[in-house]
Amino acid sequence: MALTGIKVIEFAGLAPGPFAGMLLADNGASVTRIDRPYSTSSDVLCRGKRSIAIDSKLESGRKLLEELISSADVLIDPFRPGVLERLGLGPELFLGDGTKKGLNEKLIYARIVGFPRTGEHKDMAGHDINYLALSGALAMLPGTSEKPVFPLNILADFAGGGLMCATGILLALIERARTGRGQVVNADMVSGTRYIASFPLIHSSIGSGMLGGPRGTNMLDGGSPFYGIYTCKDGGWMSVGCLEPQFFTVFIKKFNENVSSDFDPLHGWRPDPSTQMKREDWTRLAEYLRLGFLTRPRDDWAKVFHGTDACTVPVLTPKEAAAHTSSIPAFHPALTSHAKSDNRTPNLKNIILKPGAHTRDVLAEFGLDDDRLHRLEKEGVFGNTNAGRRPSKL
Fold first, then answer.
1. What is the Cα–Cα distance from 225 to 321, expressed in whole angstroms?
2. Exposure on the CB side of residue 297, measured as CA atoms within 13 A
3. Are residues 104 and 167 in the same domain?
4. Which of 162, 332, 340, 368 is the most exposed place for a label (fewest CB within 10 A)?
5. Long-range contact pairs involving 123-126 (C-beta distance under 8 Å, separation at least 24)
6. CB within 8 A of 223, min separation 6: which ones?
7. What is the pLDDT of residues 110-145, one digit of tens each?
8. Which family does the record assign (predicted)?
């Protein structure tokens, strides 16, 4: 795989850091998560990783971390600014400071924070919704007339944070192959979200295109009746996305053919392909579609539009999507064959990585012999989380 042979040290953290590490692991990197002794974990983004537990408050533990990072290709730092510096593990130690040689000048030192590292919010705590709010993207999202709705914690945490950080790491690895030098990769979720939202933000700023008007009046933000979600008779939903005229033509023809002959909610008004671009008719079209979708269950509508260019498909539940043979697996491609033969919801016991589960194996691979492991264990560096078969002399 593309990243086979790349060693990654990932300090345990929340959503974006683990996601970046998982992306690297999925593509062949050897990712080791650093946990604290006696800690517990609910991180489900640990596919393909191993865990070691080290007490960084002990000098011998800090020294061990220094050695591990010195022999790694990538470090993922998910902490607020200054945490690793206070441990004496800042980037200058490994990459050098311009006057003193670093311990590992090929290291990609990747850091993920929420707010930009400079500016008035840099020392504040926050979460996805706060970073999304400052990015400008939240103000553009659909919702009610009173306020926009946030899309879980997908945009800032995972797209603007984890995905952008992983992209930065990959670019830094490419540059390292050319120059032989590592670098610091700084990712913050506000800036990352603004970057992935370039299309809507640019259209909004210049007042043109599909998102140039006020929120809720445009093609893609709930303003157009032919790009939205409709409730069906059984409470299920259908997604409609027929933006182009040729797709709307297919959609409205199939829709009109599949409501009852006496369906006349607007007293004689009935849409046709020419209705799409008549903004004065959008309110009536939205009501016509809303009431029409309510006349049949979701799966009936799904059959009506299946195999057509109407750009209309059912909204699947997570369980349905996992079982759908044509859906993209939510798991690593190597597990695709298993996912297709066993569509049960994964057991959390098999997903969550126990902190320290691979301490001995990983440290042995990094070159620590049994005598040193024994000394470190006696000093309490591993706590009581050391897992695996212990040498007889321990």
1. 25
2. 4
3. yes
4. 340
5. 123/81, 125/80
6. 213, 216, 217, 282
7. 999 999 998 899 989 999 999 999 999 999 999 988
8. Belongs to the CoA-transferase III family.
Please indicate, yes or no, whether residues 170 and 273 belong to a single structural domain of this protein. Answer: no
**Alpha-carbon distances, residue 265 vs 226, 268, 356 (angstroms):** 18, 8, 64
Do the domain assignments include residue 141? Answer: yes
Please state, in angstroms and rounded to a whole number, the distance separating the CA atoms of residues 280 and 371.
Answer: 80
Structural domain contains residue 340: no
Asked if 112 and 161 count as a contact pair (C-beta separation under 8 A), the reply is yes
Give me the active site residues, please.
127, 157
**Both 11 and 65 in a single domain?**
yes
User: Is-contact 292 305, C-beta < 8 A?
Assistant: no
Say whether both 261 and 165 belong to one domain.
no
Number of domains present in the structure of the chain: 2
Both tokens assigned to 337: 């064959």
Nearest to 132 by CA among 107, 117, 112, 149: 149
In a shared domain, residues 57 and 192: yes
11 neighbors 41 (Cβ within 8 angstroms): no
With beta carbons less than 8 A apart as the criterion, state whether 11 and 160 touch.
no
pLDDT band at 384, cuts 50/70/90? low
Cβ atoms of 206 and 212 closer than 8 Å: yes
Q: Is residue 385 part of a domain?
A: no
CA-to-CA separations, 236 to 148, 241, 293, 299, in angstroms, rounded: 23, 17, 10, 8
Let me know whether 316 and 373 are in one domain: no
- Whole-model pTM? 0.88
In a shared domain, residues 160 and 92: yes
Question: Same domain, yes or no, for 46 and 119?
Answer: yes
Range of the domain at 263: 227-323
Give 389: exposed, middle or buried? Use CB within 10 Å, 0-12, 13-18, 19+: exposed
Nearest Cα residue to 104 out of 9, 4, 1? 9
Whether residue 14 lies inside any domain: the answer is yes
